[in-house]
């Protein structure tokens, strides 16, 4: 099968590499292979950040939480080389393209639909074997200029969306636009479940940050406890940030006292739209009445201050960046509560 995969890659003009969470320990080898073939690299949502978005071949996330850049290159490809991805419905890897799938877990191979070539093996070893046999033998299109062009189009679209204002709060787009500039490049970022997370996948551009999420389990409330676990692992060697909606944080709100007690300098970004917005969206999509999704919230910033952390509440976009910089600079746990428009995601 390895020989068949090599021959298929040799025939390819526009190969695209897709990496999932299962490839997280093999990225230097995969990126080297991508650079050898000038092949765009797309990640699953759970693999977000495995290649920096500012890498010349990085194309962001594929799927419901993804970028149009990733969709474009998947659709324009003539071969998909998939490392360590589960082929979840959320990601939406098309079965209409020739696919080489590489995975250490034999149960993951051809799990949801037929794969043209399935390679069972340790990902880095398999990738190295492919590189060895392909060096100097591929004839692929240089897609790097096209990647830059697609990023330019997407960033112009994001800039346009920043202007959206319905008078009902700040857009989540603006929140992640600010995070792109302020979040430390070496941060560990934990994300929750809901529209806030979809927006994070779509609008936040990873550099060298590590992203932790609950996968596709719908584990609302994951972000803050996960950030505590991340802090326990890295202590103060890396900054730890977390992102959630009001529905998620409300389930673990008392843990802010834990942050204060153990001096965990976690920075939490809270998108507060007083609603379980993703559930409302799903109800509308199913042509149902929106039912029991509004939330009655406290002032989360005041609550954080009462716990002994720093809490800041922002209601105007012009105050957002300075407030985010303030929580970044704070020596201790801090929460930034941003009053957002539930429809601007």
Summarize the structure.
The protein has 345 residues and is of the alpha/beta class. It has helices at residues 2-11, 27-37, 68-76, 123-134, 144-161, 172-182, 195-203, 223-234, 246-250, 255-261, 277-285, 300-307, 320-329, and strands at residues 15-19, 41-43, 58-61, 79-83, 99-103, 117-120, 188-191, 210-212, 240-245, 267-272, 310-314, 334-339.
- Compute the number of helices: 13
- For the record, the count of structural domains works out to 2
Which strand order spans the largest sheet, edge to edge or round the barrel? Answer: 3-2-1-4-5-6
Strands, count: 12
Q: Please outline the major beta sheet.
A: 6 strands, parallel
Secondary-structure element order, N to C? HEHEEHEEEHHHEHEHEHHEHHEHE
Radius of gyration: 21 Å
CATH topology of the largest domain: Rossmann fold
> What level of helicity do the residues show?
25-40%
Structural class of the secondary elements?
Answer: alpha/beta
Q: Indicate the proportion of strand residues.
A: 15-25%
What is the straight-line distance between the termini? 44 Å
CATH superfamily of the largest domain: Thiamin diphosphate (ThDP)-binding fold, Pyr/PP domains
CATH C-level name of the largest domain? Alpha Beta
Tell me what the structure shows.
The structure is a single chain. This protein has 345 residues and is an alpha/beta fold. The chain has 2 domains: 2-147, Rossmann fold (3-Layer(aba) Sandwich); 162-339, Thiamin diphosphate (ThDP)-binding fold, Pyr/PP domains (Rossmann fold), CATH 3.40.50. 38% of the residues lie in helices and 16% in strands. It contains 13 helices and 12 strands. The protein has helices spanning 2-11, 27-37, 68-76, 123-134, 144-161, 172-182, 195-203, 223-234, 246-250, 255-261, 277-285, 300-307, 320-329; strands spanning 15-19, 41-43, 58-61, 79-83, 99-103, 117-120, 188-191, 210-212, 240-245, 267-272, 310-314, 334-339. It has a 6-stranded parallel β-sheet with strand order 3-2-1-4-5-6, sandwiched between helices. A 6-stranded parallel β-sheet has the order 8-7-9-10-12-11, with helices on both faces. Helix 2 (27-37) links the parallel strand 1 (15-19) and strand 2. Helix 6 crosses helix 7 (195-203). The longest helix has 18 residues, at 144-161. The chain is elongated. The model has no long low-confidence stretch (mean pLDDT 93).
